[in-house]
Amino acid sequence: MSSTKMQAADTAPPDPTLFQYTNALKQFISPTTILPEKATGPVPTNKWWGNLLSLNAAGRLDPVYPSPYAVFIDNVAATIACSYLYDSMHQGPINVNGAISYYYFPRSSNLIFSCQAPSVQFSVEDWDDLTVQVSLTSGSSAFLRSVMALGQAYMTIQHGDVPICLSSESGIAAVDGQPFGDGFLYHGQVDVGKFVVTLHNGQRWLVCWSSPAKGQALTFTCDKQVLKSGAHFNGIVQAAIVASDDALQILEQYAGGYVHRGVVTCDTVHGFQYHWETRRAAVQSQQPTKASPPVLHFVLEHHKSILTFHSQAVVPALTLHSHTRGPMTAYLIDSASGNIWDFAFSEQDEQNVERCAQFHAPRDPSVQDIVENRLVDHLQDEINTAATWTLPPGYYFKGKALQKYGSLCLLAAKLASYKEFQTQVAPLAATALSKLKQLLDTANEFPLCYDVVYKGLITSEVFVKHDVNVEFGNAVYNDHHYHYGYFITGTQPPRSSIECLYYIYINIYYCASGCIFPILDGLLKESHIVPRYLIDSFPFVDKNEHGTANQRRAFSD
User: Fold this and answer.
1) Which secondary-structure segment (H or E) carries 362?
2) Angle at 83 (CA atoms; ends 81, 87), nearest 5 degrees
3) Which GO BP annotation is one of this protein's (predicted)?
4) Could you tell me which residues come within 8 angstroms of residue 51 by beta carbon, excluding any fewer than 6 positions away?
């Protein structure tokens, strides 16, 4: 699958005269889990699955959250745990802004798949815009392999020449209603490849598996509190949380289907598409059909209003919760629509964005508005505070400051155009402009450099201070298109002919210096030597953010 407008137009490496090449990041966060053939290309460290790229200080893997599930992979014990933790979230106290001060989820392994084989190694094998493929392998034939995606309805794990081994931190209470413990024996049936596992914490999980070779039925026993098949298995095993009896029927109906790959395309400013590649394993309990059944997949609330389908594809009876972004509703990925999800922004959304995506407010405030809302007082407070603000070095904070001071200059210029406020505001405008001038020096104490380990433009400050958290974590999160969006957006207007005090001044300065545009071109580059451009994580992008996304896309096109 390929993209069009999102495909790289410029594939030349970053200019070494502007961006020094370095492999020094290896001493901080070396990509130890990636297959060697994948490590030669760009590695997107700010994906939702970025915790799997390297081991933590304890030599273990940190969790990942392909909502609605949490996944805990233990590279030492050779296990993959799938959990549904929405009801387990711990929230801190409410802060002064009326929001929770913090939240966290316990590392609780609801359902654990074990790879019972010697000398198991964990690897990140492949990835694309929407999925990641990981494995636990032993030798050339024994493995557990999983393709994960945000919104997955099932945890899908391919088994290769290993027994199916299931356990739980909470303990398994029953299998299809049969009490689980010493002496447990489950006789499978040739035509039924599923059961419901009940845990001691009250959760129910549907477990399905594909048809074994030669149509043999599987048997399961209790082996030290592990639900274990009596023979090695080659095929697909799926697990899904069962929220209700109605949900169980739906999950059984669509079991066997799963997302294998996913690419995002964005051919217009009016929407975007998910191009899914799906796979299906034959589950014994299902009746064969001529057409491949659709694949079940969850969407977030903000997706629902912009998803367009030729037919009704929502499954409203199946709803779960993401970890922090609200409810998720099941939809279908259907071959009849080419396995494509088309997201289109409504005309009303487009009009709202068009109305607000400009440098001035959609309408000028009245004198009464200015007085009642104390705009001059607020402007004065902001500018006085800004005048004493000592900026940390780096393009991230310079970009934020450019937008902040630019906004203050715009507001000051607007208020100064009212004769009622001109005397009071004129000095404020001068102060704001003087502060803005300090940001226009393109020299930087910590120049950007090109990291050849993960491939991406990062700050050199990390190597001077030996701290991966500097520059808002730019060394760890290397999608510079996203990380330096403030700077990119704040410095793009010089290429236009907008006539206002702020932008005229920047235009004159930058055109005279001539050195900012090559840096911008480097930051906007998309090619095989930097991670593919995405604005944050596409499945999480809210429809209200697309104005900024389109603006940045237009700059790079």
Assistant:
1) none
2) 160
3) polysaccharide catabolic process
4) 61, 62, 63, 64
Contact in structure between 270 and 157 (CB atoms under 8 Å): no
Plot region of 158 (φ>0 → left; ψ -120 to 50 → alpha; else → beta): beta
User: Which alpha helices (H) appear in 2-60, and where do they start and end?
Assistant: 26-29, 36-39
Identity of residue 203:
Q
Name the DSSP class of 100. B
Instruction: Find where tokens 């549907």 sit.
Output: 206
Give the C-alpha distances (Å, rounded to integers) separating 65 from 85, 151, 268, 311: 10, 10, 30, 30
Spatial separation of the C-alpha atoms in residues 346 and 25, rounded to whole Å: 44
pLDDT (tens place) for every residue of the chain, 557 residues total: 344 455 555 556 778 888 899 999 888 888 899 998 888 888 888 788 999 999 988 999 999 999 999 999 999 999 999 999 998 888 899 988 888 888 888 899 999 999 999 999 999 999 999 999 999 999 989 999 999 999 999 999 999 999 999 999 999 999 999 999 999 999 887 766 999 999 999 999 999 999 876 667 899 999 999 999 999 999 999 999 999 999 999 999 999 999 999 998 887 778 889 999 999 987 655 555 556 789 999 999 888 888 887 545 678 789 999 988 899 999 999 988 889 999 988 888 888 877 776 666 778 899 999 999 999 999 999 888 876 777 767 778 877 887 788 788 888 888 988 999 999 998 888 888 777 777 766 667 888 888 888 888 888 999 999 988 888 887 777 665 556 666 666 655 433 333 344 444 444 334 333 444 455 555 555 455 555 544 444 455 433 332 233 332 222 22
Amino acid (1-letter code) at residue 310: H
Q: Record the tokens describing residue 226, joined without a space.
A: 């592990």
Which amino acid makes up residue 174? Answer: A
Residue whose C-alpha is closest to residue 335's, from 279, 418, 273: 279
Please give the DSSP secondary-structure letter assigned to residue 119.
S
What CA–CA distances, in Å, run from 116 to 201, 296, 392?
A: 25, 30, 51
Looking at this protein, which amino acid is placed at residue 471? E
Segment holding 347, helix H or strand E: helix 347-356
The CA–CA distances, whole Å, from 171 to 112, 167, 226, 241 equal 10, 7, 9, 15
Residues in a beta bridge with 80:
73, 113
Q: Could you tell me which of 109, 131, 168 has the C-alpha nearest to residue 297?
A: 131
Q: What is the pTM of this model?
A: 0.83
Q: What span, in angstroms and rounded, lies between the C-alpha atoms of 295 and 292?
A: 9
Q: For Cα atoms 7, 11, 16, give the angle at the middle one, nearest 5 degrees.
A: 145
Alpha carbons 292 and 332: distance in angstroms, whole number: 12
Tell me if the bond preceding 68 is cis, omega within 30° of 0. Answer: yes
Between CA 260 and CA 240 the distance in angstroms is 17
Count the Cβ atoms, other than its own, within 10 Å of residue 522. Answer: 19
**Distance, CA of 44 to CA of 92 (rounded, Å):** 31
Dihedral angle sign, alpha carbons of residues 149, 150, 156, 159: positive
DSSP 293: P
> C-alpha distances in angstroms, 290 versus 22, 231, 308, 467?
55, 31, 26, 58
